[in-house]
């Protein structure tokens, strides 16, 4: 065995030495290359089918004319110029003639089954028509001097084509090919063109060119890998051209100016979320999450950030004790939030609601950096402020939440809510979904009513008729309907009610009805027939079924619904339980818990207070509600709680310091409680509570007025309606004492900085 190996080695050396002399391949050399030959079983001399003679310094291979059965011929790294012998190899399938001196492209008659040809590292300057080589599947023409792609049109089986390191400045002539792999590395391409129809392309190498844009790749939906290393791509936005290539897993942009762009990698990872390898580095899950959070954060993330910012800035301010102290530490400000896409009418509805229920609600005026529209008034529709002022206010910790919309900033300040609460009213605001998410992170727990267009055409017409919005703004507003609908669908209980906003008047009637239910006013006003059905979100129309979550369809809190002896109560809860049973989100569970709490209170004889439906109910609230009228503050244990809540109304700051707060001097309260128009309490009809008087014309005491800061909530059975609109008759309270009124008289207006 050893002897044989030595002999073979010596033979090979001999061949080399011999061929080096004149470069002529001889029959002896061919037959000597036993180790490199494959053989048919025919036993014939010329039946070899695989010949490999690399690096033999060969220049003349004409002897191969005799080897007609060759199927695979490998002659790399020689000095061959002439390939005409291949014409005599009709069975040739694979030809590797790389690293030779060929200048005549395909200078031989086509073997019928020639599939793979490697002409790389030769001296080709021009291609020729290869229509006779229709079996070609793989063609390697790297490192030649080709300046044009030509003659391949009929190679209808060509899947792999490599033309790296030539002088090609334009991609052409590839349109009809079934290419899956194309390499044009190291050419002179400035743009990607002529590839649009290569629908089968999977791997594309365009590295080392002068390409500035990725345009031209957008339709190649099977592309899995693109190499654009060392080009001139400078804009991250260029990735948008390949954004829709869902099979793209590898992208190489190394050595492009775009890499210098700030946030380059995360931006690309965000734009191309299917990538697994970018610039030859694996894309990690962390990168994917960070990129989404950075460039398209989910509403939850936006809200969390917004909340965090305002909380931090608030904590950086001197501690403030707000004066609109609430009945208990657990009772947040009563608030009603109307939400829905821009221009759906929620602002108008909010204003109308505050007018109609002026003794219960006042409009919470937000701040905005946008300019006022015609007819808008500063301080009424919005507080219109400059960008700089808005920023300053953020830094001063003024906002509860902010959002950007249409290039402008909007924000609700604590003062806006506070101003309303100080008047003893519930704050009604309108805002986009982002604002709702933010507010849900805060200590406020409003009711959220979604106003949603169900007739898109009509909604678009409404927006157009306002003559305020560009088409793009209208399109954005319309597209956000789905966002609202999805939120409602996917987060049961997120909105307390849903009202179709298509018809403003109908929407208002529904809103009124819902609010009356919240305020427990609906029985007297509208009678049995008009009461909202437990199955409907709103009265008067069926909102689109698909918009409604089980909870949003069934959140009436009428007294009837809370009466466990009433049939509708049982049906309602049985039904809702059944609907909810498959899976309950935390929001659902919280919502159910709230309702159950109300039911328990109703069973033990406690009346749900007028405002209790507008915010989270608690035992403490009920305790305050059931106080005897006239109970003096100092005698009332809940007063301490009220004071505590006063401190807690500054989240986590003053609250934390509540133990340090000196008891308020209640003697000032008497002076503070002036009667309107110079009246004294003695002038009043018997039984008129001081609080009734103070709260009797709330519309006079809008933010900025010299209103006396009296605390919410409004007592059950309040008697003095607002002058502008007849007040709905309040529902008689089972506890006619209306304990809340007494609490209100006890609440002080003391704004003190700690
Ligand atoms: N503090 C806030 N937080 C979140 N969204 C807000 C806030 N204040 C206002 N918005 C909302 O921003 C959107 C744009 O308000 P803007 O007043 O500019 O719009 P509009 O064209 O008048 O539409 P609309 O009639 O809905 O108010 C509206 O949907 C509005 O409800």
Automatic annotation (TrEMBL):
Region entry Disordered, spans: 524-561, 621-652, 677-754
Record-linked InterPro entries: GK/Ca_channel_bsu, Guanylate_kin-like_dom, Leu-rich_rpt, Leu-rich_rpt_4, LRR_dom_sf, P-loop_NTPase
Molecular function, one GO term: GMP kinase activity
Domain Guanylate kinase-like residues, every copy: 333-516
GO BP annotations listed: cell differentiation; spermatogenesis
Domain of life: Eukaryota
Transmembrane segments: none
Function text: Involved in multiple aspects of sperm assembly including acrosome attachment, shaping of the sperm head and in the early aspects of axoneme development. Not essential for primary cilium biogenesis.
Keywords carried by this UniProt record: ATP-binding, Cell projection, Cytoplasm, Cytoplasmic vesicle, Cytoskeleton, Differentiation, Kinase, Leucine-rich repeat, Nucleotide-binding, Repeat, Spermatogenesis, Transferase
Compositional bias segments (type: Polar residues): 530-539, 742-754
Name the record gives this protein: Leucine-rich repeat and guanylate kinase domain-containing protein
Subcellular location: Cytoplasm, Cytoskeleton, Cilium basal body; Cytoplasmic vesicle, Secretory vesicle, Acrosome
Organism for this UniProt entry: Labrus bergylta
Assembly with partners or alone: Interacts (via guanylate kinase-like domain) with RIMBP3 (via coiled-coil region). Interacts (via guanylate kinase-like domain) with HOOK2. Interacts (via LRRCT domain) with KLC3. Interacts with HOOK1 and HOOK3.
Annotated Gene Ontology cellular component terms: acrosomal vesicle; cytosol
